[in-house]
Design a protein that fits this description.
96 residues, mainly alpha, two-stranded antiparallel sheet, 4 helices, 49% helix, 6% strand, extended
């Protein structure tokens, strides 16, 4: 199966994500051993992109959830934990 995004063929999952986002993953995740100056420049570039495309985090979250649902639905099979009971106070109410 070929994954085509915006007319480009993605060979790996990383390439697919980068083509879908329009940015390299390293921009958002960083790279091992980056200097403080490189990190600051990377975060500055990321802020610039988010100022132009403020909907990007929501879009990425939606695409990620849809991919998980399509290719690994078992990850959504969660069991809700029981909620702790709220304690109620007993005794006399204070006069107002």
């Amino acid at each position: 199966m070929r994954n085509i995004v915006a007319g480009h063929v993605a060979v790996t999952a990383t390439e697919f994500v980068e083509l879908a986002l329009g940015t390299p993953l390293e921009l958002w995740l960083g790279v091992e051993g980056e200097s403080e100056m490189e990190r600051a420049a990377r975060l500055d570039a990321a802020r610039d992109i988010l100022s132009v495309y403020p909907e990007l985090p929501d879009t990425v979250s939606k695409v990620a959830a849809e991919a998980i649902e399509a290719y690994a639905p078992e990850l959504f099979n969660v069991i809700a934990l029981p909620q702790p009971r709220r304690r109620t106070r007993t005794g006399k109410r204070a006069a107002a």
